[in-house]
Amino acid sequence: MGCSGGLALAIAVLLKAIFTAEEMPLSLWMFPSGADAGSEASVNQPPDRNGAGPSNAAPADSPQGSFPSVPPCLQPLPSNPSVPSVPSLPSVEENNLVGREQPVQQLAEARFDWEKYQHDKIAERLSVLTPNRARDTDTVDAIILLKRDILDRMAQLDPNPFWAEQRNELVANGILNKGAEYTIETLQKKLEKLEKDGINSAVFKDLEKLHPDIHNE
Q1: CB burial class (10 A; 0-12, 13-18, 19+) of residue 211?
Q2: Residue partners of 183: CB distance under 8 A and separation at least 6
Q3: Exposure letters 99-118 (e unless 16+ CB within 10 A, then b)
Q4: What 3-state DSSP class applies to 36?
Q5: CA 30, CA 165: separation in Å to the nearest integer?
Q6: Which of 140, 132, 125 is nearest to 184 (CA)?
Q7: I want to staple 58 with a disulfide (CB 3.0 to 4.6 A). Which of 43, 54, 64, 115 is the partner?
Q8: What mean pLDDT do residues 80-97 have?
């Protein structure tokens, strides 16, 4: 009797729940508790005069009106210490600094001690071709100075850049007497004639032969 009474009570509760559900409004079935209240209004909103359907745009002050947030898949990955980082490129200022340092370094490497070179070449020539002549430092320096003065005068008389460009090499290996060095006295006389007579002097014509273009004519 007790079991049959409990079963009858359960059946009665079940039937009451069914009848109550049938009486529930359709809107509660379509939009359960917690749903957006504006959703029902949007669905049931009739089309406007232009025939367009219901607008899905959210109000300007609504959170839905703002730009969407970046999806998690597009968020930057955390740094991994095991992965090497890409080295940064030098700035424009650093590039300009490197560009200025390179020519300076090249000039320093290309610097040549012409004075020592000239002194060594003339002293060697004196010792080999005219061993009886003096070849001390003062004598060699005097020969170098006289040769420079002669070539400077040639550059004034002849506008050809050859004399200025080849001046250092000609002091060391040019203005020679059949391969040997002229004496200091002879060089002084040549300089005097070149300053006095200019392009009409025999010295000028002899020195012109040092120019390869003139010598090959």
Answers
A1: middle
A2: 133
A3: eeeeeeeeeeeeeeeeeeeb
A4: coil
A5: 100
A6: 140
A7: 64
A8: 60
Q: Are 208 and 217 in contact (CB under 8 A)?
A: no
**Burial category of 174 from C-beta neighbours within 10 Å (exposed 0-12, middle 13-18, buried 19 and up):** middle
Distance CA 199, CA 206 (A): 10
Query: Identity (one letter) of the amino acid at 156?
Result: Q
Range with lowest mean pLDDT among 2-16, 38-52, 123-137: 38-52
If one compares 112 and 10, the residue with the highest pLDDT of the two is 112
Q: Are 40 and 30 in contact (CB under 8 A)?
A: yes
Q: Which of 132, 128, 110 is nearest to 179 (CA)?
A: 128
Question: Alpha-carbon distance 187 to 183, whole Å?
Answer: 6
Q: Is the pTM of this model over 0.70?
A: no
* Percentage of residues of the chain with pLDDT beyond 90: 43
Angle at 211 between CA 206 and CA 213, to 5 degrees: 120
Residue 117 has pLDDT above 70, yes or no: yes
Q: What are phi and psi of 214, to 5 degrees?
A: -75, -35
Nearest partner of 125 among 135, 112, 116, judged by Cα: 135
